[in-house]
Write a structure and sequence with these properties.
heterotrimer, A alpha/beta (about 350), B mainly alpha (about 500), C alpha+beta (about 350), A: alpha/beta, D-Maltodextrin-Binding Protein, domain 2, globular, C: about 350 residues, Rossmann fold, OB fold (Dihydrolipoamide Acetyltransferase, E2P), 5-stranded antiparallel β-sheet
């Protein structure tokens, strides 16, 4: 009898506690319904976005809240939310998702002053968003599994049956899809399709870039397609995931030398348009670009005169193919990947 | 009436998914379903269902029989050991195994992890039934010349059939909806593929079409279970077994039995706990700083609120199902199961579509998130609550009415206290499920919310095991009281 | 101390009518047994009185108040009756004291005086108060259930086969204790039972229910010796039926000419006799003769089945006491003690 009463009391107390916690807003879960804060939808890395948000808040006194996600889904989510989107700013890791939002007519033009802070190569022809960082495609390989001389000369060569079972990629992720969009832009639909089919039969599919790199490090795959910064970050730490590996740059304007642009844009529907523009200006300005170096994210800076992390080979030494990010076609890539049975 | 409303709520996501899939048009839908990738997913999903289903049954029933019906020592200890794995979320288990054993992946890995994570769903009800059923039938079988093994096969299994089927159904529905564990083990099923679709297109038709296939599979399972259960009445456990079942002596098989039980306990409980412990010891090597506090707090609050709301929402339908055997009641109950077999992301996307379209103020609020939890986890509460209600005889309410209590006071003074334990077990199951929910939380939670599960997932997705371990440990600790509630729940021990 | 009046009660379960046109009055302070085979609707009748079920038509009056009738409905908790069911239905989560005091106002629940008093009334030791229901025997559970139902001093107590789940020894003892307790409380009592001995011994008035309708209502000796029809006769115990012809207050049948006081008219009729009215003797004596076909021996008495001589002769059952009973094959003579009661009396004239 007594124990039962105690149980009931405990349950009721717990419920009251829970509801009151919800009611007084001490739980972050109640969010910012009246929209007084600047809301950033970010597919960029958490620590980098957070650093940008905190510095910006310190600098301007504007309150910032961040919702995390990944490129494609967040882009599509903004499209679904339409003119009523709670988002003020959208930050991506790769440009195709930004293009999706732009083509839905949801982006406001970026302040010319902000555009001027960034190199011309990092601004799309539409000028509706701006590059905020860049990342390079690399081939990570395990020298004990494959000799440097045996590495493919081009990303396209990985389709060769002789590499079957030797390489891996995170095909489900937005990063890889950006690379495929570069392949599509440069090689055309037919070749891309054939390459994807080969990928389906030749490659091991991993959850993400880190898992790919770890598998190469552990010798489970000889090679893997990843972005450069995962490797440099691990090298700067304990090298526990990359100690046995080396990087190979395809260069030579190969699709495998693709440099992907991370973008930032302001939503047309933003109720804090001025603050949002300020945020983009901050991210692309000297302070924001400096954070790319100081937070150890190892991504390339794109601001005029902003230095990238000294451990990285200079961006212009990578012989990346020249592609207007505006032309990268996200939906088409997904169609092709679905056709190839990767999705 | 309330039961119908809850069932309708559970149906909403299904309707949205169907509508989305229909948008694709018959031709496109067909080409989306009829492609090699779907065949591959179907093969994977079915092999997983078959293998894990069989293994969980064998382990669950075998362990239950050894613990409850043989003279194996330390029965109480084993009981705890085989219920406790429920406190370790499958994706934490998956993380534990793959961080310990390099190259642990694919079908074999998926079957091992899911079996070890889900076999308690079979063990728990079967053990409870074996513990409390009258041994009379089995004695009759022995008198008719059947040995103990044959008796168990011919009579014992028949007696535990309803409990067994219910448990296996839970295992299979969990398998259909499992995402984290399988994604980590690189074993694509419909659910992981739907998640991939969502990642690339947020709300793609292709994803909806896959979800419809998944709904079809779940419907098939639910129907099969009803058919297999047949006319067997749901046995009211503990309604006064006259005698304790006798325990068979194991003789020379005892060491082997003990070894088997110990091995199962080590694999299901020892490995994940040891692995988490190991990584916890290296927490200082984490790449990202670990902020446990806020995640712990939002998880606790969300879990408690959702668990209580879900339990309340379960009561009307559970009441109906326990008290009436009508087809309508059965249908209402099955409907609530159906939505729960969907991956969280599908339910979440449907709710996003609904809130953006029809209830904008609810978009990205805790309320919408709690609604998603209710839809996703109502069967967990349903199973326990229904059993709890079944143990409260309707005549007791008459007695209370005759003594001057109106319906409400009768419920408060008689029915509620009698149902409390069993219902609380269901509430606890929901709490644990919410604690470990991943995909719906990511999509629906208000901006800025971070729960233990999402924080764990962030860390483990970047294979930062050291950063993930504290969140895993916190989830296990939060879930631990469940073991106690489940062991004590529902079944009043009949006194001799 | 409440009079119960049922007028024109009909009730049905979904799609199956159960009760029709029930009129019954239970006088204040008296006990009425509703007797009938299982499925006759007697529990439904009790549930209608209790308010667990709504009648389709008719009114239920408790004292001066209409508790169920056209446009009136009083829920069970406000009718103020005591109720004891077959299984006792003690609350398993409460101990004996809490069960008994369940219906009392909060203040009275704390004071244990009433609990002790009630335990004494039902003849249970006071130290049972702390036990849980599953630690009690069946008879004890029933007595606690009665004590619980009496706690609020109800004007009327409804008993739904409260003794049928007990074994025979316990049944009699419990019944006696309950009867004593009810007398002590001077409550109006309605007992539902399928056991005619229980009905006849327990009640001041017996109501025979058959297929949802009342067949006969009266004092126990009246309904036993003068059943209104075959169903009523059989409900109340063993009975023999014989065809006869009535003439001038005397009925002629296979057992000779029997006095039928109160019967008027003349013509064919049906005679009902109770087994103890038949007296067996040696073949030499008596008017009718027969052969014993079977004997059931109970010790204190015996039931002897016999067939009278002649074609198409009816089978009779006689209850005899004392001397060793005749056995199968014995030839006996049969005479009738007391008056005959006629069922289907011929039309007057």
């Amino acid at each position: 009898m007594r124990r039962r009463t105690t149980l009931i009391a405990a349950a009721v107390a717990a419920a009251t506690l829970g509801l009151s916690a919800c009611g007084d807003g001490s739980l972050e879960a109640t969010g910012d319904l009246d929209g007084s804060k600047l809301t950033i939808y970010s597919a960029q890395h958490k620590n980098l976005t957070q650093a940008w948000g905190e510095e910006f808040q310190k600098e301007t006194g504007i309150d910032v809240q961040i919702r995390y996600g990944n490129d494609s889904s967040m882009g599509a989510q903004i499209v679904e939310e339409g003119a009523g989107s709670p988002a003020d700013v959208f930050l991506t890791e790769n440009s195709p998702a930004m293009t999706t939002v732009e083509q839905a007519g949801l982006l406001a033009p970026v302040d010319p002053a902000t555009l001027a802070q960034v190199g011309d190569a990092y601004v799309p022809s539409s000028k509706d968003w701006v590059g905020i960082a860049a990342r390079a495609t690399v081939l990570v390989y395990n020298p004990s599994k494959i000799k440097e001389a045996d590495l493919p000369a081009s990303l396209m060569d990985l389709a060769d049956p002789k590499y079957a079972g030797q390489w891996g990629a995170a095909a489900g992720g937005a990063d890889f899809q950006a690379i495929v969009s570069a392949v599509l832009a440069q090689e055309g639909e037919q070749k891309t399709e054939a390459w994807l089919r080969a990928l389906k039969s030749n490659a091991k599919i991993y959850q993400n870039n880190i898992a790919t790199m770890k598998a190469v490090n552990a010798g489970q795959s000889a090679m893997g397609i990843i972005y450069h910064y995962y490797w440099y970050r691990d090298q700067a730490l304990q090298k526990s995931s990359s100690g046995n590996t080396k990087l190979h740059y395809f260069k030579n304007q190969d699709p495998g030398a693709f440099v992907s642009l991370s973008g930032g844009g302001v939503l047309k529907s933003s109720k804090h348009a001025a603050d949002a523009q300020k945020f983009l200006a901050f991210v692309t300005g000297p302070q924001g670009q400096k954070l790319l170096r100081t937070t150890d994210v190892k991504e390339y800076a794109v601001g005029k005169g902003a230095a990238s992390d000294p451990a990285l080979p200079p961006l212009d030494s990578l012989e990346a193919p020249r592609i207007d990010p505006f032309t990268l076609n996200g939906p088409k890539v997904i169609d092709l990947m679905t056709k190839a049975g990767l999705l | 009436m309330a039961a119908v409303l809850v069932a309708l709520l559970c149906l909403l996501p299904l309707v949205v998914v169907l509508a989305k899939a229909l948008e694709a048009g018959a031709g496109e839908a067909f080409s989306l379903v009829w492609r090699p990738r779907v065949g591959e997913l179907m093969r994977n999903t079915l092999s997983l269902l078959a293998l894990t289903g069989v293994l969980a049954t064998v382990l669950g029933v075998g362990a239950a029989w050894l613990v409850e019906r043989t003279a194996v020592p330390w029965a109480g200890l084993w009981r705890v050991a085989f219920v406790a794995p429920l406190a370790v979320p499958a994706f934490v288990n998956s993380f534990a195994w793959s961080s310990l054993v390099p190259g642990f992946e694919g079908l074999a890995g998926a079957v091992i992890v899911t079996t070890l994570s889900y076999f308690p769903f079979v063990f728990l009800p079967v053990a409870a039934l074996l513990r409390s059923t009258d041994p009379g039938l089995e004695e009759a079988s022995r008198a008719l010349g059947n040995g103990p093994w044959r008796t168990f096969a011919r009579v014992g299994l028949a007696q535990v059939r309803p409990a067994l089927l219910g448990g296996v159904l839970l295992v299979l529905l969990h398998l259909l909806a499992e995402y984290g564990a399988l994604e980590m083990l690189r074993f694509p099923t419909f659910t992981t593929a739907i998640l991939d679709q969502f990642e690339v297109a947020f709300d793609s038709r292709s994803g909806s079409v896959l979800a419809v296939v998944l709904i079809g599979l779940a419907t098939l399972l639910l129907t099969l279970e009803v058919l297999a259960r047949g006319r067997t009445r749901y046995v009211a456990v503990g309604s006064g077994a006259a005698r304790r079942p006798t325990r068979a002596s194991l003789g020379r098989a005892l060491p082997a039995a003990l070894l088997g039980l110990a091995a199962l306990a080590v694999l299901a409980l020892g490995v994940p706990l040891w692995s988490i412990g190991t990584w916890l010891g290296r927490a200082d090597q984490a790449l990202e700083p670990v902020a446990l506090g806020p995640a712990l707090r939002s998880t606790l609050v969300l879990g408690l609120v959702a668990a209580l709301v879900t339990t309340a929402a379960t009561l009307p339908a559970a009441w109906l199902v326990a008290r009436s055997r009508s087809r309508v009641a059965l249908l209402l109950e099955r409907v609530t199961y159906l939505a729960a077999s969907l991956p969280g992301v599908v339910v979440a996307l449907a709710l996003i579509t609904l809130t953006i379209g029809f209830a904008r103020p609810l978009y990205q609020t805790t309320t919408a998130l709690v609604v998603a939890y209710v839809v996703l986890f109502i069967p967990l509460a349903m199973v326990s609550t229904r059993a709890a209600i079944a143990t409260v005889r309707p005549e007791l309410a008459d007695a209370a009415r005759a003594l001057g209590d109106g319906p409400v006071r009768t419920f408060v003074r008689v029915q509620a206290p009698l149902m409390l334990r069993g219902t609380l077990a269901g509430t606890a199951l929901v709490f644990v499920a919410v604690t470990t929910e991943l995909t719906a939380t990511l999509l629906l939670a208000p901006t800025g919310t971070r729960t233990l599960a999402t924080a764990f997932w962030d860390a483990s997705a970047s294979l930062d095991y050291a950063a993930a371990a504290p969140f895993a440990a916190a989830m296990v600790v939060l879930s631990a009281p469940l073991t106690w509630l489940l062991l004590r729940g529902g079944h009043e021990e009949p006194r001799p | 101390m409440t009079t119960l009046r049922l007028e024109g009660i009909s009730a049905s379960h979904p799609r199956t009518p159960v009760l029709h046109d029930i009129d019954l009055t239970v006088a204040s302070g008296t006990t009425t047994a509703v007797l009938g085979p299982s499925g006759c609707g007697k529990t439904t009748l009790l549930r209608v009185v209790a308010g667990f079920m709504r009648p389709d038509t008719g009114t239920v009056r408790l004292g001066d108040e209409v508790v169920a009738g056209p446009g009136t409905w009083v829920p069970p908790e406000r009718r103020g009756f005591g109720y004891v069911a077959q299984e006792g239905n003690l609350f398993p989560h409460l101990d004996v004291a809490a069960n008994i005091s369940y219906g009392l106002p909060r203040a009275e629940r704390r004071a244990r005086g009433r609990v002790a008093e009630l335990l004494e009334v039902v003849g249970l030791p006071a130290d049972l108060a702390g036990r849980r229901p599953d630690q009690l025997s069946g008879g004890q559970q029933q007595r606690v259930a009665l004590a619980r139902s009496l706690a609020r001093r109800p004007g009327i107590v409804l008993l739904d086969e409260p003794f049928s789940a007990l074994d025979p020894e316990l049944r009699v003892a419990t019944r006696d204790a309950v009867a004593a307790a009810l007398r002590h409380e001077r409550a109006t009592v309605v007992l539902v039972t399928h056991d005619h001995a229980e009905a006849l011994s327990f009640a001041d008035q017996v109501a025979v229910l058959h297929d949802g309708g009342l067949v006969q209502v009266g004092a126990p000796p009246e309904v036993y010796t003068a059943p209104s029809d075959r169903r009523s006769a059989v409900s109340l115990g063993e009975a023999c039926f014989l065809p006869g012809v009535l003439e001038d207050g005397v009925v002629r049948c296979a057992l000779g000419r029997l006095a039928a006081p109160g019967a008027s008219g003349s013509g064919p009729c049906e005679v009902v006799l109770r087994p103890e009215q038949l007296v067996l003797g040696p073949v030499a004596s008596g008017i009718a003769h027969g052969v014993v076909t079977r004997t059931e021996y109970f010790g204190h008495d015996a039931l002897v089945e016999l067939r009278l001589d002649g074609d198409r002769a009816p089978v009779l059952r006689a209850r005899i006491t004392g001397a060793p009973p005749p056995v199968a094959g014995d030839e006996v003579s049969v005479t009738v003690r007391g008056d005959a009661h006629l069922l289907a009396a011929p039309a007057a004239g």
